[in-house]
Write a structure and sequence with these properties.
pyruvate-formate lyase- activating enzyme, rSAM_sf, alpha/beta, OB fold (Dihydrolipoamide Acetyltransferase, E2P), 6-stranded parallel beta sheet, 481 residues, binds S-adenosyl-L-homocysteine, 13 helices, binds FE3-S4 cluster, Rossmann fold, globular, cytoplasm, binds iron/sulfur cluster
């Protein structure tokens, strides 16, 4: 029997609303858990499955924080869980297909435990067609909420649990920036710190500006306070998060405080390692490059998505730069920060991409000397402009292009590891290697995976490792004093 939808709260997303940008000033509000919500989770457990980018990982830590404040504890298995939240990603079709499969699989638990609350959250929940499909064919999903209203989880759970009604509340556009949110972090020495939300770039292939709303920066005071607290808790590394961190502060033009300034201020807090992701080439300025050079705690690693090497394709993607201007920015970065490791994202098979366009991409990869890249075949996202572009390239050709691109990219990975042979690098030890319990694994300052023999008591510390072997995907080394 299917449950009734609670109509008091019913809000489904609307992509034409999500596309809109207003000049509205974004207010800051403080999260507070109401007394009535404090004991709801007593004797109950939760699980959160996270898909997609670091933004989602950070959101899942907030969801966990809220649930734990309500008294829930983390379950040890799906069977024992009273709430399962799927925090989803909508970036490509295959990301979504995985979720559909998972939702189908979870139906069995729901049959065994009708009180289980199954929730769909994250970027897929922001899509009109997804919500329609879930309401119609995935009736075992009890709760749908989006990326803009995570702070309202307590109310939703209360309704889903006690009124036993389906709750659907997805806002098409962003609301206030909510501060004072509790977080249950997944790591003890590495942490995500949001510095901004949303994206205003509207690359024509991308769903993110629709699922995450308008670009809005957190105040520097809040960001700095969060990092300070992490330092006090003994954290060694922070990764500053935003879809386009290089635009930090640009929505608050009046004070001229931008990403480079933020890096310098965070550097003063004595956290060992500062990383950030992701950057848009057209907002990357000299001030940021100089801050990376001058700040000893900002790591010499830069992920700078290029997407394509063809000027025609870049224009159709609405990327606001050319192959030449990208290479200029990149060269300037490498000049200002010598030895910096640069990686990228590339899409092949964008509608109208010809063999010549693709060869331009290969040429750019060669010239840029990337030390790694995430490579993707273009995926149509309903509601984005590119979904309507004529796409005549056969799938097989796209796959071939991806294969040819990856060969070049992999050669770059190997050049990027080989340059550290016989050098001593600093490694933040993450844990034991996935493949061998006696081996420790961690990342160097240049973000290279390093494996070496050592005692597990070193986990969470920064140690010196002399590199003895360089492979495409990792380095091997020996612990030194
Ligand atoms: N804001 C970040 C990351 C966005 S998503 C940035 O701009 O770099 C990560 C990557 O997914 C993008 O850089 C892009 O390469 C890829 N991507 C986004 N939409 C896609 C689509 N529709 N098809 C294929 N790849 C896509
Ligand atoms: Fe998507 Fe472009 Fe924004 Fe990145 S910058 S999230 S690719 S629209
Ligand atoms: Fe995916 Fe949303 Fe991140 S679409 S990549 S989870 S912003």
């Amino acid at each position: 029997m299917s449950k009734k939808i609670n109509m008091d709260k019913y809000f489904a997303p609307d992509l034409s609303q999500a596309r809109k940008r207003t000049k509205k000033i974004i207010e800051e509000v403080q999260f507070n858990l109401r007394d009535a919500h404090q004991k709801i989770g007593f004797n109950k457990t939760y699980l959160i499955h996270t898909y997609g980018c670091q933004g989602n990982e950070a959101d899942s830590e907030t969801m966990a924080g809220i649930l734990e404040l309500m008294g829930f504890i983390k379950a040890i298995s799906e069977e024992e869980s009273d709430i399962i939240i799927m925090n989803t990603c909508a970036i490509r079709e295959n990301a979504e297909n995985r979720i559909w499969g998972e939702l189908g699989r979870l139906k069995a638990y729901k049959r065994r435990n009708p009180d289980l609350i199954l929730a769909l959250a994250g970027c897929m929940a922001q899509e009109e067609n997804v919500v329609k499909k879930v309401l119609k064919t995935y009736q075992h999903v009890d709760l749908i909420f989006g990326t803009h209203n995570i702070h309202k989880i307590p109310e939703y759970i209360e309704t889903a649990m006690f009124a036993k009604e389906r709750v659907v509340e997805v806002y098409s556009t962003e609301g206030e920036i909510v501060e004072n949110l509790p977080k249950t972090r997944n790591h003890k020495f590495k942490a995500w710190v949001n510095i901004m939300f949303g994206c205003d770039e509207f690359c024509t292939y991308c769903i993110v500006p629709y699922t995450r709303g308008k670009e809005r920066s957190r105040s520097k005071e809040e960001v700095i306070a969060e990092v300070k607290e992490l330092v006090e808790l003994g954290y060694k590394e922070v990764t500053l998060l935003g879809q386009n961190v290089n635009a930090y502060g640009k929505d608050k033009i009046e004070d001229g405080y931008t990403f480079g300034d933020l890096l310098r201020d965070i550097n003063k807090l004595q956290i060992d390692r500062i990383r950030f992701t992701t950057s848009h080439p057209h907002d990357l300025d000299k001030k940021t490059m100089e801050a990376i050079r001058d700040c000893e705690h900002v790591m010499p690693f830069f992920h700078l998505p290029v997407q394509s090497g063809s000027n025609k394709v870049l224009k159709k993607m609405n990327r606001h730069y050319t192959k030449e201007s990208y290479l200029n920015v990149l060269n300037q970065l490498k000049e200002i920060v010598p030895g910096i490791s640069v990686t990228t994202d590339i899409i092949v098979g964008f509608p109208s991409e010809t063999e010549e366009d693709f060869l331009e991409t290969l040429d750019l990869v060669e010239k840029a000397d990337f030390e790694g890249a995430f490579t993707f075949v273009f995926s149509k996202r309903e509601g984005t402009p590119a979904a309507k572009y004529e796409d005549l390239t056969p799938e097989e050709d796209k796959k071939q292009r991806l294969y040819r691109l990856n060969e070049k990219v992999n050669a770059g990975y190997l050049r990027g590891t080989t340059r550290f042979l016989n050098q001593t690098v600093k490694v933040l030890v993450d844990g034991v290697s996935k493949h061998n319990d006696e081996v420790l694994a961690g990342y160097s300052e240049h973000q290279k995976l390093v494996n070496f023999k050592g005692d597990p008591s070193l986990i969470g510390q920064i140690v010196n490792v002399k590199i003895t072997v360089a492979k495409t995907w990792f380095l091997l080394g020996e612990l030194v004093d």
